[in-house]
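Pilot study result, target chain (585 residues):
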Amino acid sequence: MKILQIVHRAPPHEIGGTEQYTLAMSRALAARGHECLILSGSDLTFPDPVLILGEHESLSITRYASSLPPRYRGQWTQTYDPEADALIRRFLTMVRPDLVHVHHWMRLTSNLTALSTEMGIPTVVTLHDLWISCPRGNRITPEGVFCSEPSSPVLCLNCAEREPWQDDQEMSEAIAFRAAQFTRELELADFLLVPSSAQKALLQKVLGGAADRLLVVPHGSITDLRRRATAAMRRSPDLPLRLGYWGHLIPYKGPHLLIDAVRLLPDPRLVEVHIYGGEAPPWYEEQLRAAAQGLPVQFHGPYKAADMARADLDVAVFPSLLHESYSFVLDEAFQCGFPVIVPDRGALPERAGEAGLVFAAEDPASLAARIQELLHNPERLDQLRQAIPASPSPSMEVHVEELEKIYVEARAAHRIQEGVVTDYPALLARAMRQVAAREEKLEKLAELEANLAGSRQEMDRLASDLAALDQARLAAEAHSAELKSEMAHLRTELAALTEARQAAEVHSAELESELAALTEARGAAEARTAELEAERAQLQSHSSELEKTLTRLREDHANLRDHLLKVRRTPAFKLQQIVEKWSRR
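Predicted structure:
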């Protein structure tokens, strides 16, 4: 049988669980004599869309390279790709497979089942994840809350990612159209497969009648790790409990919850945390390492599945926030002999069974309680180990045997559809509405750009004015600083002048008092002056009389002198002198 497997990506470029499963399953089918081909999407970009033929591990792998940048290729509103439609149609015509097995539509086109049906090729679909049921792809809201409600324009309008130019009407139409497209894809498939009962239950809830035909077919194992002897793994009470996480280091896988849970333990020193994984987003790795500061956490970097068989661990912890549909890392843990701690979401608790402990999804306190349970009851760890199944998953050989039966039944039951199955008129009408909406928005955008140009000119003028105002403001601030300095100086001088005025007023009062005293003294002096003037007048009068008297005395003196001279010349006077002279002897 010639079987074409269609998947969104393929090794060696991508090594996620779905990609590895598709490769391993194709190898097993080829080993059983089937001709297996793989058609995959990719992130490759070429000027013109093209299918690139290649080979990996002896398998023919054809990759679709779009002309759109990867950013637009991943948009949920662009699920139908007319270029991929045309190329895949030609590819199907050329290789003419007996059956097509669709594993994913992403990076390809949303009408893969319809294309196969149009060409009369039976189709089997495996729903590995929740992508077709949710515009966001994983049913995790922007707030980080898991959503289990059916997709609808009402519920998804404010949750689905959109471009700035996409309005509510376009978004609502895109949500409804996407749901209708994938409902039609599921209706056209001959068989619908899911790997777990949990996946089936959720898809039946969110997809409604389109998922009624889901058939649970567990995946075949893609690893074969050596199971370790249970006795060699028995933990000594003196050693810390060794917890291990491995897988993608991305927020949705929840390694941060494990670190947060360890921090909540009464004594984190009783455990060791070993984290394996590489190529984390830089911001998330920084967040993880910051959260692990001061805790017994070791980051081991990139790893291979075989490395885990040599890891010195007691328990594997997979705290995913997602609704895991199967989980190959759980297979790896059981093959290595590690019991597990998993959240109560998706297939993990279903598959863990008695070999695992279950905590409330997204709740680090609940996870801490499960870890503490093992610390308090070491024997519980032995019980979990004893419950590990010998074969956690069917071997790939057993799995492809079951797939062969389904393929044969699909070919036998395939209904030939007459006419075109893909609703091209609807696709065309929607495309025309999108073009009209884009043209209308382009016209508005042109008007806005014209207004923006005018606004920019006005802004440039305002910026120039603002620059001038800034210069004026700086000058005013400088002048204001000078005025403030001068004002401070004037205040100092005013204070000194006020003090001087007060002193002058005191001195003026003293002077007034002295002036009054001087005025009084002047009055007294003037009175005394008058008295003295009178006395002077009297003195002058008396002086005049004295002058007259003196004149008379002088005249009398002259007369006396003349008389005396006359006397001295007399003999009597001379005799008297001789007598006096002799008397003194």
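One observation from the pilot: The longest helix spans residues 424-568. A full batch analysis is planned for the follow-on phase.
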